[in-house]
Amino acid sequence: MEPTTAAAIAAPAPLRGTAVGETSTDERSKIRTVIAASSAGTIIEWYDFFVFGTLATILATHFYPKGNETVAFLSTLATHGAGFAVRPLGAVVFGRIGDIVGRKYAFLVTLLIMGGATAAIGLLPTFASVGILAPVLLVALRLAQGLAIGGEYGGAAIYVAEHSPKGRRGYFTSFIQTTATLGLVLALVVNLSIRTVVGETAFAAWGWRIPFLLSAVLVVLSYIIRRRMQESPVFVEMKAAGKTSQMPVREAFGTWVGWKRFLVSLFGVTAGQAVVFYTGQFYALFFLQKVLNVPLQTSYFVIAMALALGTPFILVFGALSDRIGRKQLLVGGNLLAALCYYPLFRAMSAAADPLNVPVLVACVFAMMLFVAMTYGPIAAYLVESYPARIRYTAMSLPYHVGNGWFGGWLPLIAVWAVGATGNRFAGLVYPIVVAGVSAIIGALVLRDTRHVELHDGA
Q1: Over 50: is that where the pLDDT of 90 sits?
Q2: Which domains does the chain have, with CATH numbers?
């Protein structure tokens, strides 16, 4: 696969400065194609990344020593978190490639790495077969997944934003934001379907491998779609003018101005967004399964229904950010989450015994609205906050430090806190504090970016 160059492609004319009412039929067709192609691949990458977490309870029994179920589960969560820990490294590595070689080339490579690692997990020998080598291989493949997703998200978000008309970037990039939730929903649906077909006993014994192996087919289809995509018009213009950066990491983080942008994005936006996202989806799932002892299939159903109901609101809040600005929604979502988590989780606890599925769905749906408020506008905000020549590198790092470190370790921290204290609500302290801090910092230092010209940078 050869790197994409400006001379090798025929890029569409950029849509900068086009008002919502002035977007032509041809331009609308182009942006829809861009969104569809970008989103399809990103959904698959998120499916690959999240299917690990949805099967954590089963993986614990196959890849770690038997005898202590809690230790095995925490070990699996730590392995799950390892994928998040290396996401910032993936952001730097593939961000540099995206700023030097091209957006398209970078997220083609990440797609292949992610798909290969995920399919390989489905072929791994278990602890009973090869002993300690089993978790070692599992961790290695999880690290490969983390590197890949670290490069994928920034490329997809930038690619769509740099094709979008100025007045609708929040709306169009919010389609990319839905892919993480849709990838999780896809993982849950695949798991439930396979469980139903093969039965619980067979799924626990060998059927868990199928969701991982399925990735190979999905990645091939996505690669074919993405291979036909054209490069971002903003990157093409920079490349043709000789204005691309040769040292994007140094340019992005070699000065105090660069680090100030990083710290504002991290603590004012992405740290809070990350804990809101992972509390409302992953920790809610673990809380149902491990703390409230809700039956496994019921817990999957609750999460899947809440996500299906809540995901469209990511688009709603993305579009709203084009009208009222990104800051109000980012700050408001973090603040509401910090204030409402404790009463929502208490309501879930009450609804678990006796089991009241509609109430559980309603509680998780409420959390999904906080996710939508913070997650819908965030891609547009980050893309608009950094100059085009270093955008891939500069925006990817704060996003993946926030989501990889603050968000990725949340399930492990929360489950550990519950076990250590014996208080089923102790796991909420961490997300409440982080979301609250982000709301305060964001209110003080964030600026509205929706009128920024992407060709000229922030």
Answers
A1: yes
A2: 25-445 (1.20.1250.20)
Q: What are phi and psi of 126, to 5 degrees?
A: -90, 175
Q: What are 354-400's pLDDT values in tens digits?
A: 999 999 999 999 999 999 999 999 999 999 998 888 888 888 899 98
Any residues with CB less than 8 A from the CB of 292 and at least 6 apart, and which? 348, 349, 352, 353, 424
Q: Please report how many Cα atoms fall inside a 13 Å half-sphere around the Cα of residue 387, on the Cβ side.
A: 14
Task: Report the b/e string of 76-87 with b at 16+ CB within 10 A.
Answer: bbbbbbbbbbbb
* pTM (predicted TM-score): 0.81
Residue 8 buriedness (CB in 10 A; 0-12 / 13-18 / 19+): exposed
**Which residue is listed with tokens 């043709």?**
240
Residues 395, 155: Cα–Cα separation, whole Å: 10
- Residue at token pair 């678990």: 352
Alpha-carbon distance of 243 to 241, in angstroms, equals: 5
Mean pLDDT of 238-259: 85
Question: For 275-280, what is the mean pLDDT?
Answer: 93
Residue 94's closest CA among 168, 13, 152, 176?
Answer: 152
How many Cβ atoms from other residues are within 10 Å of residue 456's Cβ? 10
Q: Which two tokens stand for residue 97?
A: 């490639």
Contact 187, 51 (CB under 8 A): yes
CB distance 162 to 15 below 8 Å: no
pLDDT in tens, 249-258: 888 888 898 8
Counting beta carbons within 10 angstroms of the beta carbon of residue 9, is it exposed (0 to 12), middle (13 to 18) or buried (19 or more)?
Answer: middle
Instruction: Report H helices in 3-126.
Output: 25-54, 56-63, 69-85, 87-100, 103-121
C-alpha closest to that of 275 among 91, 413, 170, 79: 413
Give all strands (DSSP E) within 275-401, no chain letters.
none
Q: Is 18 helix (H, G, I), strand (E, B) or coil?
A: coil
Separation of CA 287 from chain center:
20
Residue 298 binned pLDDT confidence (cut-offs 50, 70, 90): very high
- Angle (CA) 401-81-72 rounded to 5° is 165
b (16+ CB within 10 A) / e for 89-99: bbbbbbbbbbb
Can you give the length of the chain in residues?
Answer: 458
Quote the CA–CA distance of 121 and 300 in Å, as a whole number: 22
Provide the angle, in degrees to the nearest 10, between the axes of the packed helices 69-85 and 410-421: 150
CA atoms of 116 and 118, how far apart (whole Å)? 6
